[in-house]
Amino acid sequence: MKEILFYKYDLSSMILEHEKKMSNEINNLDQNRIFNSDGTELVEYFSSLYEIIPLSLDLENITIEHSEVDIDVRNDWSRAIRDRSQPCYIKGNRISYFIPYTGDKTLFFCRASTYSSLLPYGDVRDTEILISIDTLDYADEKIKTSYNSTVSNILQCLGWINKDLSGFNNSLKDKIKSLIDQRKEKLNKNISLINNLGYPLRRRENIPKNYNVPTIKKKIIPSLPPIKHPNLPPYPVLDLSAYEDILTTITNMSLTMERSPKTFSKLKEEEIRDHFLMVLNSQFEGAASGETFNYEGKTDILIREKNKNIFIAECKFWKGEKVLLDTITQLLGYISWRDTKTAILVFNKNKDFTNVLKQIPENVKSHPYYIKQLPYKIDTGFRFVFHHKDDDEKELILTILLFNIPDKSDITIELK
Q1: Containing structural domain, residue 281
Q2: Cα(252)–Cα(259) distance, rounded to whole angstroms?
């Protein structure tokens, strides 16, 4: 059926409703799906499901069809017609152009943020759009001109539609990841709340054990990534705000060390670690929250919940690139597959602290598990993204903080 195009719906409203539907679906993901599915695969699934496919005309594979049609000429004043209140039909020609297209059919009826008052008409079908031109004469150039004008109008409207779509599609994966992270953080808070109440959680009856993939009308329907360990309980994770709080506490303690080089310059690594443990335990009450600070070996600082490590930091004196890279490898060997936030605290006893700082990014980038560097607000700190040692797709955060504790007690540290 021939209809006016690019007019019926507002594209921005359609995108908002589409995004709302996506948000609702992610916010209703169950606990098992969130904690026991691969995060990257979840993002890919929802991206494939909710990406809006732009429209594209296949102008190389157009076909045409001819048919005879009755054309009403009562408004043609060059013809002698006695009663113009009634239709007056004359046999004419209909040239139909069938143009294949790809993309979401609904977009042909959407109005972009930029639009024209001169809108084309067409018959939109599932895989092609039909443009028909009715004529009483045989002037092929007029037919071609009329057709080209309509196609040009459609292409202009498509350009406006696809430009508006690009903003949504380009930011889609970031939005999905943010929604998944928010859902994960909320579920973790729920778990912490229940754990802190001190009573076992009553199991509900008749809970569906399987997650059904919703039926979506698409050419290719993506499927949710498999749950890798369906019987595992949710693994405790540390949210970003708590991670920053811990690093701030560590930084404040280290600044105290910098201001008192005479006191701390002679301490060994395990003695420096013990100072951190004392301050961390005074700031974060493990018994009340279920999180405790402890260590294993000589240099580790751990946050533990239910005997699982959710934060690990290493204390090291600066001894060059090899020791730093070995420390990163050692640290990555401690962590689980789950989302984990880590840190390395580097203490410098050399005189040239600025030169040490300059070396860190390049040294870290040479590690085989390095992915990228992130912005970080501390001028003596760096933040990086690494992948898990056994999974190239699983990412984790590593923050490296450096502190200057010169060996000579007569050196004065000037703080800006």
Answers
A1: 240-404
A2: 11
Residue 186 domain flag: no
Average pLDDT over residues 117-135: 93
Q: Chain centroid to CA 64: how far?
A: 44
> Which of 170, 191, 209 is a domain's end point?
170
- The β-bridge relationship of strands 9-10 and 292-294 is unpaired
Question: CA 270 to CA 257: how far, in whole Å?
Answer: 15
Total-model pTM: 0.49
User: In terms of DSSP H, where are the helices of 28-75?
Assistant: 31-36, 39-50
Q: How far apart are CA 148 and CA 166, in angstroms?
A: 26
* Domain count within the chain: 2
Which of 170, 197, 223 terminates a domain? The answer is 170
Q: Which residue has the higher pLDDT, 182 or 301?
A: 182
Q: Could you give the CA distance from residue 327 to residue 386 in angstroms, rounded to a whole number?
A: 14
As a dihedral over the C-alpha atoms of residue 246, residue 379, residue 298, residue 266, rounded to 10 degrees, the angle is -120
Any residues with CB less than 8 A from the CB of 409 and at least 6 apart, and which? 261, 262, 265
Structure confidence at residue 228 (pLDDT): 58
Q: For residue 271, name the pLDDT band (cuts at 50, 70, 90).
A: confident
